[in-house]
């Protein structure tokens, strides 16, 4: 922790208490911090104007530090660079980061208070925005997109959706969407089709929209990425969506199962689950997304409150999923997603074929237990 002259973050930095000072827990409460802190005169630090992470990391390695404080000319602590960040970055090569090695952060917005939220989100550092709505083929989304591009230019990337056909894609593309989400009612916690009769089968919707995306690109030279949102339960569903034309995927249920998801892990009948609920459920209380006017409450639910099987840490599962996708691409003779779309052959299958595709007509050993 940093110890300051007047007890507030605005005072001069006099020294640092590091993790090596384990004696703190055994000290008397009237012991002064200055008796066990590393004094400022002995600190290894860099100037707060340092813009090169390479330079900061060189100092960390040269002096065998766990962290490097960055201090301004008034002797105030501004930033800290940690050795662990360097090792984590080397270990996780597929991190989605910018040129300054900061995580790319997206934020959802709605078509009601966008004029207040968008400036605040951009000021806070959001890299990309997305209009969060179950129905994107609307004048409200056109107005929201126009506001963002008129006030913040084309450098601010904003997605829109959701749509399920070529007409919906064309509408949002001409309205200025930088990417478009496809899918209505296909999410595992979504009951929009059941309650309102609105939506379309995910595969049919995705194929239709991606075909329109390609036509739009041929006409205008502008390529608008498509996100497949909903309908993914098993890992191979991801490969199918990518083969059908999706550029990237929405994976709510997939990520909700892991340790890293913010929901509680619960034990039901001896099995662990994670909580998972839809934005259209009463639990989410997302009235701004589903409001029909009047009181600020949901008139009816379009989502459920549920559990999904607990699956452990994200890293292990994602590596397995990526291995499956790569293996399937290899089977199709594809090294890239464009090649996968071109070479993969998609065909209708019967219910019998689906049963045949799994283990069948055998008794699994796990049914008998183990000695």
Description:
- This protein is of the alpha/beta class and 371 residues long.
- Helix content is 34%, strand content 17%.
- It has 2 domains: 2-91, Roll (CBS-domain); 106-356, Aldolase class I (TIM Barrel), CATH 3.20.20.
- It has 13 helices and 15 strands.
- Strand 11, helix 8 and strand 12 (248-250) form a beta-alpha-beta unit.
- Helix 8 packs across helix 11.
- Residues 1-7 have low confidence and may be disordered.
- Tell me the count of domains: 2
CATH architectural type of the largest domain: Alpha-Beta Barrel
* Beta strands, count: 15
Q: Which consecutive residue ranges, at least 5 long each, have pLDDT under 50?
A: 1-7
DSSP helix count? 13
Helix content: 25-40%
CATH C-level class of the largest domain is: Alpha Beta
Given helix and strand content, the structural type is: alpha/beta
CATH homologous superfamily label of the largest domain = Aldolase class I
**Strand order across the biggest sheet?**
7-8-9-10-11-12
Q: What's the main sheet like? A: 6 strands, parallel
CATH topology label of the largest domain: TIM Barrel
Shape: globular
In whole angstroms, how far apart are the ends?
53 Å
Mean pLDDT, rounded to whole units? 87
What Rg is obtained from the alpha carbons, in whole angstroms? Answer: 26 Å
Q: Which H/E pattern describes the elements?
A: EEEEHEEHEHEHEHEHHEHEHEEHEHHH
Strand content: 15-25%
């Amino acid at each position: 922790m940093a110890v300051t002259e007047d007890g507030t973050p605005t005072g001069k930095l006099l020294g640092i208490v590091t993790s090596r000072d384990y004696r703190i827990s055994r000290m008397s409460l009237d012991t002064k911090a200055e008796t066990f802190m590393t004094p400022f005169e002995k600190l290894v630090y860099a100037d707060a104007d340092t813009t090169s992470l390479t330079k900061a990391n060189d100092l960390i390695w040269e002096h065998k530090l766990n962290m490097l404080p960055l201090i301004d000319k008034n002797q105030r602590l501004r930033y800290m660079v940690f050795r662990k960040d360097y090792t984590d970055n080397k270990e996780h090569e597929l991190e989605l980061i910018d040129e300054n090695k900061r995580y790319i952060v997206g934020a959802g917005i709605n078509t009601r208070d966008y004029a207040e939220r968008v400036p605040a989100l951009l000021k806070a550092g959001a890299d990309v925005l997305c209009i969060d709505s179950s129905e994107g083929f609307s004048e409200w989304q056109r107005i929201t997109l126009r506001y963002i591009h008129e006030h913040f230019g084309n450098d601010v990337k904003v997605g829109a959706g959701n749509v399920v056909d070529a007409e919906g894609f064309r509408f949002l593309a001409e309205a200025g969407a930088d990417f478009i989400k496809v899918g209505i009612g296909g999410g595992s916690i979504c009951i929009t089709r059941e309650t309102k009769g609105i939506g379309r089968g995910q595969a049919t919707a995705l194929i239709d929209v991606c075909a329109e995306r390609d036509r739009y690109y041929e006409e205008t030279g502008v390529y608008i990425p498509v996100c497949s949102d909903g309908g993914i339960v098993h890992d191979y569903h991801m490969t199918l969506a990518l083969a059908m034309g999706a550029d990237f995927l929405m994976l709510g249920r997939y990520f909700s199962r892991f340790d890293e998801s913010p929901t509680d892990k619960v034990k039901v009948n001896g099995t662990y689950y994670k909580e998972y609920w839809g934005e259209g459920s009463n639990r989410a209380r997302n009235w701004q997304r589903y409001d029909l006017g009047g009181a600020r409450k949901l008139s009816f639910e379009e989502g459920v409150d549920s559990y999904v099987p607990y699956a452990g840490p994200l890293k292990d599962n994602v590596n397995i999923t990526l291995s499956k996708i790569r293996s399937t691409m290899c089977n199709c003779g594809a090294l890239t997603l464009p090649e996968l779309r071109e070479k993969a052959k998609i065909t209708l299958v019967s219910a019998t074929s689906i049963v045949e595709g799994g283990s069948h007509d055998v008794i699994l050993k796990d049914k008998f237990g183990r000695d």
